[in-house]
Specification:
The structure is a homodimer of 332-residue chains. Chain A is of the alpha/beta class and 332 residues long. Helix content of chain A is 39%, strand content 21%. The first copy, chain A, has one domain: UDP-N-acetylmuramoyl-L-alanine:D-glutamate ligase, CATH 3.40.1190.20.
């Protein structure tokens, strides 16, 4: 095992979020499945943006949010993901570098514009996402920076990458590099519909190539096609070293071959926007792992970061997470 | 006087704000004059963005914020201002239309990108602005929509337009159209440095072509080169029909030929970001005028809208202003 310059290196879709508010009737009227992510093409993106209310723009992307969170905790993060050479591309690159993450993927000079996600936030704080993948799908094996991955304690991948063949190939290339270098690989299942689209691939990957799996309740039950959380937790046990199952306000459950650890959710005054809750939970958990904290403490760091994320609009941390963790006595 | 389809039509720079946080030491280190606006070129914008922390993007522009506010109160608003045919241009056009404003200025297909303003917000909520005018300066007489202006009760102009010769010419063309149609013209002085750059022009304009003038304390003292608010208020009396002088937490003073009306500021729990306070005050005041409310009630609507603007990041209203005005008993 060589030098680990990075705590966590993530590979994912490089996305700028466009966040607006709507009510539940709007979601029904436009056939948007509340709380889920769907892929849209450029034409659908234009049409959906046309009916959206006034919005704000903020950098996003699932794995990118996680790596931003790791950096905010004081960890060394790296990110691999493709933007175009346009205004949203500059925004994405700026924000991830400004929080301290190493990011060197060259912007695509031709082809589709930078990816965007139209996010509709309902009054209950739930988010419904519509993603135009644009330039992010031009991520290919050529962009997989082997030196960066070899130098990271943990490689972190988002399941959303499986939605495009080139990105899926980049994903497999990256996991092979990490395995050869003796590093850990972590995966988030991303979305229940995404799991439905790629169930067999995900099951195989969890068994053969993943050390740490993140999934929420709907994702893990979709993966094992069971109807209760308990059955899903039983099904995943032993499939990978650590399965981290998040349950929104009910907290999270960490499952290993011979342990089951329950972690409470961190209370929040008001849930403003749940976008990024899972991403930031993963940030806290992985940061704790790289600091060799016990699994319960890793889970508490995850809960802390998720609580910060849901207390404001947007998926990136607004308060320095290292300070919150120190105030909570979880790190020194 | 023909039909007035619009309550207020604004002409201004069409800008997307990039908003980040910093401390006072950062402003000092980079020679940024706290609370003011400065113009920067493309190279300076790149360089300043490079040292900015993680940010969010949100539609802005002084007159555009005001017209968005008028629309949020339930008024009919129109806006004239130039963007480029790029991602920020689409964001600007989307947001102003989504709040109900008529906006038909064709995007510039060549030349500079859409204008942006790098806004640094300090912990006290004060904002320091750095504007790259980009495509907004390509606004010329050709874009001045005479039919729209003739159909508006009030033409509203931002002083910032004076910073570029073409936009200044468009400004004069617009005021001539409004005068011929028997409409009122309102002007905001925008910024004390802007006043310094164009003092003689502004004084002449206030006397000859402006019915309603908006200025804050530093702007009105800069205009008349006096050292107290009282002297400035005395100097402006009778120069135009109504001078509306805003004083942050001390409220506002409305000066006419034979009246001086003092209006309290609306209390807020926490000043998060003062960006847009003056713009939204003008929105409330002008909306009240078009509904023939008395001047004190116009001022209270202004205070209400300003208070909403400073209680969150960004200059556009987040809560429907008509609802706030009804709750406050100012409109029915």
């Amino acid at each position: 095992m060589g030098d680990t310059r990075y705590d966590v290196v993530g590979i994912g879709n490089a996305i700028v979020d466009i966040i607006g508010r709507c009510d539940d009737a709007f979601l029904s009227k436009h056939d948007l499945a509340k709380g889920f992510m769907r892929l849209i093409d450029a034409r659908q993106a234009d049409s959906l943006y046309g009916i959206m209310g006034p919005a704000i723009e903020r950098s996003g992307g699932s794995a990118a949010n996680t790596i931003a969170g790791v950096s905010s905790f004081g960890g060394n993060g790296g990110f691999i993901g493709r933007v175009a050479d346009d205004q949203f591309g500059k925004v994405f690159a700026h924000d991830i570098r400004a929080i301290g993450v190493s990011y060197d993927t060259a912007p695509a000079r031709n082809g589709a514009p930078t990816a965007l996600c139209l996010i509709f936030v309902t009054p209950d704080g739930e988010r419904t996402m519509n993603t135009f993948l644009g330039a992010s799908t031009e991520l290919g094996t050529g962009e997989v920076d082997a030196k960066m991955i070899e130098a990271a304690s943990v490689l972190y991948l988002e399941g959303y990458l499986f939605d495009k063949p080139e990105a899926k190939q980049a994903f497999h290339t990256a996991t092979a590099i990490a395995a050869r270098a003796g590093r850990k690989t972590a995966l988030t299942l991303s979305d229940a519909f995404c799991v439905d689209r790629h169930r067999d691939d995900f099951r195989k990957l969890v068994r053969d190539g993943v050390d740490v799996l993140f999934a929420n309740e709907t994702e893990i039950t979709a993966l094992y096609e069971v109807n209760t959380f308990e059955k899903a937790a039983a099904a995943v046990r032993g499939e990978c070293e650590i399965a981290v199952l998040t349950r929104s306000e009910e907290g999270s459950v960490i499952v290993t071959a011979n342990e089951t650890i329950t972690v409470k959710a961190e209370p929040v005054d008001q849930v403003v926007d749940v976008t990024g809750a899972g991403d930031l939970y993963a940030a806290g958990f992985l940061f704790g792992l790289t600091r060799s904290l016990d699994l319960a403490a890793c889970g508490r760091l995850g809960s802390l970061a998720a609580a910060e994320a849901i207390s404001h609009i947007g998926a990136r941390p607004e308060k320095p997470l290292d300070q919150l963790a120190r105030d909570a006595g979880l790190i020194t």
